[in-house]
Design goal:
223 residues; Umud Fragment, subunit A; 2 domains; nine-stranded mixed β-sheet; Phage repressor; transcription; DNA-binding; transcription regulation; DNA binding
């Protein structure tokens, strides 16, 4: 096989493996350690060939063997272990409406979204509906601060003491509260804010608020 044909075959295998995992170029680049989309495009088109370390990063992200990507073997060797990272979409106003959120994630081109990488080792039960949200208010300071990024799972049922993302009727923004069950025999619960300048919410009518999901992780940058 000539050098040109090898480049084309390597590019073809990268493209096929990416499509098999349902990844966009942007998502693959993030999973592979921050590779630029232009480099990935050049590799897939056979214009250039990735180096050894780049091949290893791509193989880990695509769950295939480096030898397969380099055309040294026809054995794909898909790993059976779970990928150590999981990408969740970083949402803003879409998270205010769960129906809009579901429509966005399922129907929109993922390349138009930003993603946050989380560890599947730390969060092994994270559902495919999980998403990230950047904090814009002070309802839960000092525990959760403005600019923190929280990971939310809409399929996790809240337990007493959990932090939850809440949409209050007639309010434009979601807030973060702590879930408190008021009785074992009734459906009443209270949503507590840690910031004393923010009101708590006592809920007897479930239609007044919507619990969008449970906070399962908080990511904070100190610089």
């Amino acid at each position: 096989m000539t050098e040109l044909n090898i480049k084309k075959e390597i590019g073809k295998r990268i493209l096929e493996a990416r499509k098999a995992k349902g990844l966009t170029l942007k998502a693959l680049g993030e999973l592979a350690g921050g590779l630029k989309q232009t480099r990935l495009t050049n590799w897939e088109q056979g214009v250039r060939t990735p180096g050894p370390e780049e091949i290893k990063s791509l193989a880990r992200a695509l769950d295939v063997s480096p030898a397969y990507l380099m055309c040294l073997s026809d054995d794909i060797q898909i790993k059976t272990v779970k990928n150590p990272t999981h990408l969740v979409p970083l949402l803003t106003h879409q998270a205010f409406d769960t129906q809009a959120y579901n429509s966005l994630v399922r129907n929109q081109d993922p390349s138009n979204l930003m993603f946050v990488s989380v560890s599947t080792l730390l969060l092994p039960e994270l559902s495919n509906e999980a998403f990230a949200l950047k904090i814009v208010n002070e309802s839960m300071t000092p525990e959760i601060r403005v600019s923190d990024i929280i990971i939310i799972d809409p399929l996790t049922l809240p337990k007493p003491g959990d932090y939850v993302v809440v949409k209050v009727k007639m309010q434009k923004e979601v807030i973060i509260c702590q879930y408190k069950k008021l009785s074992y025999t009734s459906s009443e619960f209270e949503l507590l804010t840690l910031n004393d300048t923010w009101p708590n919410i006592k809920v007897s009518d479930c239609g007044a608020v919507e619990i969008i999901g449970v906070v399962v992780q908080n990511i904070r940058n100190y610089h």
